[in-house]
Design a protein that fits this description.
The chain has two domains: 63 residues, no CATH class; 259 residues, Rossmann fold, CATH 3.40.50. The chain contains eleven helices and 17 strands. Helix 7 crosses helix 8 and helix 10 packs antiparallel against helix 11. It is globular.
Length: 350
């Protein structure tokens, strides 16, 4: 039975399901069976674009580690894809003499097998709760928060309501008829016109708070890189990719990647409340250029044939260009109190 048929049967028996629950089931199914990454998959992430991305983030981690006094650390990646980013980060860290144990938070057995080949000796965790507690943590999450289960609220004629997934004429459909307390909606958005949508990713906020508590207790830093905005804001950003092309979210359940824009302001607020220091967000392009993307690209081009130099230049442009990933994607850092200010961020908020 397909996931769609399973959901149809469940909703008929139990009633409409919250969007967050449907999204969690759909993405768990998708990542357990599909090959989403790379040219043959549904999307290409920054580590798959170029080795430069991972190498620079590895150098970012190593720089923090050096300026923090070379403490005992563990490298953690949330949602490590095929292991490409961690492999490249370790290469960037090695230049500074940093070779930490690697811990992956990953639930897909299929992806775990790929990650184990890319980074032999890595340890695996179903969630961050089992990460080591006896060392500072250097945590990296690239395009992880956007796939966490999303809650949506819709302004109806009767007020704000929770968006759920129901069955209408034997098809899955969005519904908004479960009233919510006005306190769930930011005051500035409460008078939005009928049909307006407000999103909140409670899972992302809870994760940020959990990481912040770990960092405050153990030391370290977390780097979050994703596409998103600084809210609160109105808008339905839920999207699906299937076969490398946009698809209707409810038509792609379990067969495509579901994601939504990250509200970095909400993530920052949750992390600060839990004891972390927050830097950013800054545009990915600005972040990578500040870390030395241009110099790294030139070093890789040296002595290479013209076609290789052109490819490397195109990769750098894709990572940092305003018309590519450079503006839509943003970087945000969470830091243990007392840790040095991270490279690539012009300011750090207490």
């Amino acid at each position: 039975m397909s996931l769609r048929d399973t959901l149809l049967a469940r909703i008929r028996a139990e009633g409409p399901l919250p969007l967050a629950r449907v999204m969690a089931l759909a993405n768990a199914h998708y990542y357990a069976r599909a090959e989403p990454f790379g040219a043959a998959g549904d999307f290409v992430t920054a580590p798959e674009v170029s080795q430069m991305f991972g190498e620079l983030i590895g150098a970012w981690c190593a720089d923090l580690w050096l300026r923090a006094g070379r403490p005992e650390v563990a490298l953690v990646e949330l949602g490590p894809g095929r292991g490409t980013l961690a492999r490249d980060m370790l290469r960037g860290m090695a230049v500074a003499g940093l070779a930490p144990p690697v811990h992956f938070v990953e639930t897909s057995p299929r992806l775990r097998a790929l990650q184990a080949r890319a980074v032999p000796g890595a340890s695996f965790h179903d969630d961050p709760a089992t990460l080591p507690a006896d060392a500072a943590l250097l945590v990296v999450a690239n395009e992880f928060l956007d796939a966490l289960p999303l809650t949506q609220f819709e302004r109806t004629a009767l007020g704000w309501a929770l968006r759920t997934v129901a069955v209408e004429q034997d098809e899955l459909a969005f519904r908004a008829d479960e009233p919510v307390r006005l306190a769930m909606i930011p005051e500035a958005l409460r008078d939005a016109p009928e049909g307006a949508v407000f999103e909140r990713n409670f899972a992302a906020e809870q994760l940020a708070a959990a990481l912040a508590r770990r960092l405050a207790a153990q030391g370290g830093a977390a780097l979050l890189v994703d596409y998103g905005h600084v809210g609160p804001a109105l808008g339905d950003t839920l999207q699906a990719l299937r076969g490398g092309r946009p698809a209707a979210p409810l038509e792609a359940l379990g067969e495509g990647d579901l994601s939504a824009h990250v509200d970095f302001a909400a993530v920052a607020a949750a992390a600060r409340a839990a004891g972390a220091v927050v830097a950013g967000p800054v545009a990915q392009g600005d972040f990578l250029l500040a870390l030395g993307l241009g110099a790294r690209a030139e070093a890789l081009k040296a002595g290479r044939p013209a076609e290789v130099r052109a490819r490397i230049a195109a990769e750098a442009a894709r990572l940092a260009g305003a018309g590519a990933m450079g503006r839509l994607f943003k970087a945000q850092a969470l830091l243990a109190p007392g840790w040095p200010a991270p490279a690539g961020f012009p300011s750090v908020a207490p």
